[in-house]
Amino acid sequence: AGQRMAEVLNFSPRSSGFTTWWNHGVSSQVFVGWVLPAALLAGWGLWLARAIRDRQLSGRQMILITLLVAGAAGAMVLSLGPRGPLGMKGWEAVRHVIVPYKMIRQPAKIFCVVPILLAMAAVVAANGLNLSLGMRRGRMAVLVLACLAALEYRLQVSTTVCLIPTEQAAYRAIAEDARARQKEPKAMAIVLW
Fold first, then answer.
1. What are phi and psi of 112, to 5 degrees?
2. How many C-alpha atoms does 127 have within 13 Å on its Cβ side?
3. pTM for the model
4. Residue-wise burial string across 89-125, b where 16 or more C-beta atoms lie within 10 A, e elsewhere
């Protein structure tokens, strides 16, 4: 049967979360920002310009960055769940085509592949900056963009250290039960989020 649509909708981010700098609730999970997309667009444009002049190598680089960004964009659309561009009907179609998606309560979890794809695309884009601007100016441009992206993400992300209390009643009960049965007490805490 799968998850109820109302429950999935509760945990689905809005597309404004991709670029919104302030706390946007569940939508903050899918923050991409402005700097990285702008840098990717610039890198793609530089590769396109090179591909027009030199079709052999640059065309392949442009195709690679396009495929990486397209993969990231696809994952970003899926991460919106029923709040995506095709709405509820689109989400129902995805759940029908990708059968395990019927069990997904938090569509934003697919977003975890986006940073990996965008990072690979950023490397290709940075290579385009280096080739187009020369190594020295290209590296300086990459460094400036990396600092701006780091600042943008730092302003968005509020890291919190979560300490598990040293005394856990549930684990103590497991240990006491094991000792009562004359077994070695074993318990493991696995923090998922």
1. -60, -20
2. 16
3. 0.72
4. ebbeebbeeeeebeebebbbebbebbeebbebbbebb
